[in-house]
Amino acid sequence: MAAFGARIDSLARGRAVLSMPITAAVGQQHGFAHAGASFALGDSAAGYAALGLMEDGAEVLTVEMKINLVAPAAGMRLVAEGEVVRAGRRLTVVRATVLAVDAEGRRRDVALLQGTMIPA
Amino acid sequence: MAAFGARIDSLARGRAVLSMPITAAVGQQHGFAHAGASFALGDSAAGYAALGLMEDGAEVLTVEMKINLVAPAAGMRLVAEGEVVRAGRRLTVVRATVLAVDAEGRRRDVALLQGTMIPA
Amino acid sequence: MAAFGARIDSLARGRAVLSMPITAAVGQQHGFAHAGASFALGDSAAGYAALGLMEDGAEVLTVEMKINLVAPAAGMRLVAEGEVVRAGRRLTVVRATVLAVDAEGRRRDVALLQGTMIPA
Amino acid sequence: MAAFGARIDSLARGRAVLSMPITAAVGQQHGFAHAGASFALGDSAAGYAALGLMEDGAEVLTVEMKINLVAPAAGMRLVAEGEVVRAGRRLTVVRATVLAVDAEGRRRDVALLQGTMIPA
Question: What is the ipTM of this complex?
Fold first, then answer.
C-alpha cells in the first residue's frame, strides 16, 4: 500500500486505522474502480488489526472478504478502521469501515467490510 | 487500473478478461496485501462484463463484492475472467475468477469473486 | 419463521430483535446445518430492521447476505439483532448479530451477517 | 433439513445435489423469508460436496457463506447443486446454485452461494 501513500495512523490490540490520499491513482474509471482502493485499504486495516492480536513475527492472510460500497470515495483522504470481532484458535473474523474525509474534515462512510484472516 | 499496467484482453457480451503483470507494486506485505490486487482486477473484469450488457455510454458501480482467496498470487501475470451470471432489471449479479500465470504459462486459480453491479 | 417458534422481541426505526428456541428442528446434522437457522433468524432481523425505515405496507427482499459463523449455536435460545447501517434511495445495507443464550442467561456471539435489502 | 422434506438426490466426489418441496413451511413472509430456505438448502449441498472429499466419519462446518438471491423461489421444488471449487489443506472453498423447478419441469436459478467449509 506504500505506493499509494498509505500510512498507519494507529495500532492497538485488535484495532488498526490506516489512511491514504484520494488521488488519480486510486480514482475511478467507468464508476467501479474505486471499489479496489476502498477494498485494499479496508482489508489492510483489518489485517493489521488481526496481526495486533498475534505473536511478534506472525503474518496473516485474508481467507475471504466481503465489501459493501455505500457511497462514492470522494474527498481528500480515505480512512479505514479495522477491528477484530472474533479471534478464534484457527480463524479470526474481522470488520472494517472505510470513510472519506473532505477538505473540511467531514467524514462519510464509504464502505463496510467483513471477512476472515488466518495466520500465514 | 492503468497505473498497474492492467489491460483488457477480451470483451464480449457478458464476459471480460483483464490482465496485469505481478510486480512489486501489487506485491504483498505481511501476507495480506495481495488480496487488494486480486480484488481490483477481478472486480474490474466483472464490471466490464456487466458493462458489455448495457447501453453505450452506461457506467456501472459495484454494490458489493465477496472474494475468496485460494492460493498466493505468485507468477508473472494475473488474469481475471469476469462474467455476468444474472442480468436483472435493477441489479446484475457477476462472478470472476482470478488466475496467476507463471513463466511457463501454467495457470492456477488465485481468487473467486461473486457480487452485484448496478447502473451508475 | 413462525414454524420454528420465532418471535419479534423488539422493533424500532432501523433496528429489530428476533428470537427463537434452539430445538432439534433447527439443530445440526453433520455439523453444518445450524448455519441455516442462524442465517434465517439473522436475515429476518435485518429485514425487519430495514422494513422499519420504509413506508407502511412496504416489503423488502434480500438481495445478498454474507454470514460468518463464529461459534456453535448451543444453548436455549437464538437471538438476532438486526440494524440498518446505510439506508440508500435504492438499496439498504444491513448488519445482524446472532447470539446464543444459555439456561443461565449467558450470551455468546454465534454469527455475524452483512448484506443488502431492496424494496419489494 | 429432514423436517422440510429435504433429500439427497446425488452425491459424488466434490459434488452433491439436494432438493426439497417448496411449501408453506419454507414460504416467505414480508418478502424476505425465502432467503433462509434457499440458504439452508444451498449451504447443505455445499457441505455434502465438501464432505465427499474428506475421510469417512469426517464432519464439516460452514466458516462463512455468501448468498446472492436472483429470482423468487416459486414453483414445486427447490434443487441445490453444491460443488467444491478448491479443496485446501485447512479450508475448502465451495459454491452452490439453487434452482426452482415448476410443475412442467422448467428450472430457474434462484440463488448463488460461495463460501468456506472447515473440517469439524
Answer: 0.91
